[in-house]
Amino acid sequence: xxxxxxxxxxxxxxxxxxxxxxxxxxxxxxxxxxxxxxxxxxxxxxxxxxxxxxxxxxxxxxxxxxxxxxxxxxxxxxxxxxxxxxxxxxxxxxxxxxxxxxxxxxxxxxxxxxxxxxxxxxxxxxxxxxxxxxxxxxxxxxxxxxxxxxxxxxxxxxxxxxxxxxxxxxxxxxxxxxxxxxxxxxxxxxxxxxxxxxxxxxxxxxxxxxxxxxxxxxxxxxxxxxxxxxxxxxxxxxxxxxxxxxxxxxxxxxxxxxxxxxxxxxxxxxxxxxxxxxxxxxxxxxxxxxxxxxxxxxxxxxxxxxxxxxxxxxxxxxxxxxxx
Length: 324
Description:
The protein is an alpha+beta fold. It has two domains: 4-125 and 301-307, Gcn5-related N-acetyltransferase (GNAT) (Aminopeptidase, 3-Layer(aba) Sandwich), CATH 3.40.630; 135-267, 3-Layer(aba) Sandwich (Aminopeptidase). It contains nine helices and 15 strands. The protein has helices spanning 16-27, 79-93, 112-119, 139-143, 150-160, 173-187, 194-205, 249-264, 282-292, and strands spanning 4-8, 31-33, 36-40, 43-49, 51-53, 56-58, 64-68, 98-104, 123-133, 162-166, 209-216, 219-229, 232-240, 269-275, 297-307. It has a 15-stranded mixed sheet that branches. A hairpin with a 2-residue loop joins strand 3 and strand 4. The radius of gyration is 20 Å and the shape is globular. The N and C termini lie far apart (45 Å). The relative contact order is 0.17.
């Protein structure tokens, strides 16, 4: 008889420890990490990234995320039901008020997990994860797929900006601190702790991403931080001189960051976040519309939500969007 067990995730894999450390520093006492490995007959077959933020079981701005490292999970009887029950137990035992689970469609159909969550009276909301595939990535092909109006802006950035890469092979804490101070200047204040910045630099030291800086006429005017987080690369933070924004300083850095993420080879895809069709806030709409122009694919994604102790006729609020 096959045996499925759940164990605390090995924080040395998949950048799990540094990501968890960062979010703990960012959210402080409102954060706990309940991520777990999924084993079958003592063999690791997958993992679940699962955080508690305030009283929500989720990951920032998305839902709890499952990832399998082989196809053996498809043969395990009622595996998804067991995972769902484990998530519900974590939420109940730790006083969570709601659970949010992120799940993709399987060939236009609900996955077994989705079917189980539907049967368990989870509410659903359809969003679209904006992605670029990094396996067998071809820059020339990708360039043809981005929004047409972006191409002249990307070319301006390529010609006009002096780019510096901060990564494992080219570390510079001095320039990283310059980026931090530039962030404070554009934001008008320091928005998070020194330690959270230090953890981001540790991510670069360990090869989990890179910082791209751009100087214009000898002055720092833009910086974009890309982090390899679990199986995907994310656009973590972008800071730009507002007076030059219309020239395309953000466009070139994001494009360049996507291309370099493919060359780095740590992840299978680049995520620009989730696109919502019902977003009302104009600023957030503009942010997601900007990112959408770089997306190669819009992957239909279901956010399943269960409110603990409340009937299931409550709808899912709009996703927050932010650069942490």
